Amino acid sequence: MNKTKMDTQLYDFGMIGLGTMGRNFLLNVADHGFSAVGLDKDDEKARLLEQEAGFRKIKGATETSDFVQLLAKPRKIMLLVPAGQVVDIVIEDLLPHLEEGDLVIDGGNSFYEDTNRREAYLKEKGIHFLGIGVSGGSKGARFGPSIMPGGEEDAYELVRPIMEAVSAKVNGVPCVAYLGKTSSGNYVKMVHNGIEYSLMQLIAEAYDVLKRVGGLSNQQLHTVFSNWNEGRLRSFLIEITAQIFNQNDPVAEGDLIDKILDKAKQKGTGKWTSQNAMDLGIAIPSIDAAVSMRGISSSKSEREAAEAFFDLQLSGASIDQSDLVVLVEQGLYFAFIVTYAQGMRLLAEASEEYQYNLNMETISRIWRGGCIIRAELLELMRQAYQNEPHLKNLLLADAFKEKLLETHKATRLMIKLGIDYGIPLMGFTSTLAYFDAYRTARLPLNLVQAQRDLFGAHNYERIDLEGIFHMNWD
């Protein structure tokens, strides 16, 4: 863009990437009294930023050198660009213009190992680097997201006032806090997204049961989810689900939900969560099931052919609509608790493995507002970790014991209905199986270990003697 007299002003904060998220984040920054400059190679996006800024102290730029010169030192620059190679390209473009002590922030959904690599690379050049998870979508970026920063604590202090100002607030408390070293921020955001995958799958399965077993109309579903959002299931995802069922199709007759193709796409964070959990040996079957279901959904033509090929006409016992709604609500509450428990268990293990030193209460606190998985449950989680900071699994928290005991039977009945009607409930069944496995003192895996020893001489341990044993099975 053309330079103006304002170019002599130095700005507090810089943003590279002026898509909807980047522009909204900058507007949020300016709303809280900080001046900001945004960079995008697309002149139209830089111009749009200034148009939307109005009276705010915001400027758009299209040249990297101009952008950097407009920032007060030490420069604080945030990237909101697609994860992957693009981040490295932007960093290389920036480097010739930066000075020792400047700060670069990656605010995208970057893979945590990439964050470790980038931090080490920039540290050699005297440049600070933070990997910050940002959740809340474009609306959250504009009015208050949940922010998950990781890296050097001294580097975070450079932007702490800005991050606390722009973040969502719950009872006046900012939904942002320094989480830990290196890639901890991006890792926590990755697991956040894994939990998000599972919650969305569970809600979709609940919708399927209500629709196919109970025959609820979209308007009835809108009412049910709206009511749920006034109770213990209150959450962002339940809220927007209610809204979806009330949306008319803008281009044809009927409701929009009935016209949307049943193929769910993914950007990778759910898959990364599952893969890393397997690397660490931590079970998160609810998240794994959600990732798998998105994969199955992509095979639309095969599914259509398989439905015609098998032509199963399944049905189960009839159930009153109001009774079904109560049953599904209990099942969903049970599954929500178990899903959060799996995600937090993974975070606890990763914290030890990668020396993040994560605080589970802090994570629960900053997820209470702004982020996609914000829910009433998170305050109970925060309290549970406050009471027991070293709690290994939320399922063992006194606060959740009674709730799980109250709802697990309804979950079993709901799954039985799904089986009778031929409704795939991979999320619910995985959740219940995890609960049952976790509460079982003796699993049949003694047989698996015997098999491994027989065919591969992998040894086994005994319940009555110390040591490692091998049997000559022949």
Number of strands: 9
User: Can you give the helix content as a percent range?
Assistant: 40-55%
> What is the string of helix and strand elements?
EHEHEHEHEHEHEHEEHHHHHHHHHHHH
- Gyration radius from CA atoms, angstroms: 25 Å
Q: CATH topology of the largest domain, which one? A: N-(1-d-carboxylethyl)-l-norvaline Dehydrogenase, domain 2
How many alpha or pi helices? Answer: 19
* Beta-strand percent range: 5-15%
Going by helix content, strand content and strand pairing, the class is: alpha/beta
Overall 3D geometry? Answer: globular
CATH architectural category of the largest domain = Orthogonal Bundle
Q: Identify the CATH homologous superfamily of the largest domain.
A: N-(1-d-carboxylethyl)-l-norvaline Dehydrogenase, domain 2
* Main β-sheet description: 7 strands, mixed
Distinctive features:
single chain; 474 residues; alpha/beta; N-(1-d-carboxylethyl)-l-norvaline Dehydrogenase, domain 2; Single alpha-helices involved in coiled-coils or other helix-helix interfaces; seven-stranded mixed sheet; 9 strands
What features would you describe in this structure?
The longest helix has 33 residues, at 321-353. The chain has 474 residues and is α/β, with parallel strands linked by helices. The protein has helices spanning 20-31, 43-53, 64-69, 85-94, 112-123, 137-143, 153-166, 184-212, 218-228, 236-245, 269-280, 285-297, 300-310, 321-353, 360-366, 377-387, 398-421, 426-438, 445-456, and strands at 13-16, 36-39, 58-61, 76-79, 103-106, 128-135, 146-151, 169-170, 173-174. Helix 14 packs across helix 17. The model is unreliable at 1-6 (pLDDT under 50). It contains 19 helices and nine strands. It folds into three domains: 5-182, Rossmann fold (3-Layer(aba) Sandwich), CATH 3.40.50.720; 189-438, N-(1-d-carboxylethyl)-l-norvaline Dehydrogenase, domain 2, CATH 1.10.1040.10; 443-474, Single alpha-helices involved in coiled-coils or other helix-helix interfaces.
